[in-house]
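Table 4 source record.
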Amino acid sequence: MAHLIGIASGKGGVGKTTMTINLAIALQKSGLSTLVLDADLGLANAQLMLGVKPTYTISDLISGDLTLDEIEHNCYGGVGLIPGASGKEGLTNLSTATLTDLINLLKASPKQIVLLDTAAGISEQNMQLLSACDSKLIIFLDEPSSIADAYGVLKIQQSKTGLDSTFLVPNKVDDQSEGKQLFSKMNGLCMSFLSEPTQYVGSIRRDPKVLTSVRSRSPLAKQYPESLAWHDIRLIAGQLAQSLTLN
């Protein structure tokens, strides 16, 4: 069975999709076969960052017209992509049964790792997808709203499945020391109010190359392989790979 990794955030604009795409490439480069699901099902954007224009999307799978293999798009570095759909309101409120079927399909994928780039926020659909993942990465910034919203995600996850295999990833920090301090601050909140710790796999430094990469629709690994952010994501991929239990 594939190991599902959910990438989440309390609010948008914190770098979640950038993290997902580049982490998938880093894991693929480390020798793990990798698939990305754009799990913001009705507002697709992962394909934009990969610079691809897929013919088929998750909508074709949910409707029963095509299989998972048929809608998978091969992207840079050998990473597979299951694209989300754009402007499909019906995909934002799928039934529990439909989401369960989707999760089971992903787990049955021949890929070793499936990354779910979830929508920001704490919608019921979002939380169901995240709860089904074997590992969770919560991306957040050193901003009051980002910290508060990330804590909201953690609080709901703790009530559903606990915080085991939940990793906090501070983004846009000045250095790794600042990132570790920010993690400790958030982890302290979890210990104080949720009585359960989270885990740390590293931080991502502030890097202007990230915005340029996004605007050019090209992953950091391809566009700026010497960039600070790509260096940090590769380290996170290595730490994460060591923690995974793969069948």
